[in-house]
Amino acid sequence: MITGFSALLLFLLWRYPQLPVARGVHALIVAPLAARLNRVTRRQLIFWALVAVFALVAGEWLAILGPLDMGLVLLWDVALYVDALLGAVAVASVARLVPLPRWRPRPRARRSAPRRAAPGNDADAEPALWLRAA
Known about the structure:
Elements: H1 2-15, H2 20-38, H3 42-56, H4 58-65, H5 68-97, H6 129-133
Helix pairs in contact: 3-5
């Protein structure tokens, strides 16, 4: 019975959103749930997906991992690892699709006439004394 009622509400929301009943259901059920789901981060979604898997196979895992708290901490670490992995994949795919411009030095402008070498500093008439000793 509840399934049929839910299907009827879903049909009303889908086909006739202007009805007062559909607007009321939307305001009471759909909008708060959508607002709450919009606040969920990717890390939390991965964590709760791993918690669901953990709950399905908890009998075997509890024997291996020990207390439930340690298992949840382990799952949080795995969720962080998966999140970092997804971030690295996203950065790599963006870098592959949109390559960064390569930095190349500008070529130097050529001078119109070559410069003559400046005269050396040969102001001393005699070489240094320590060079004579050698």
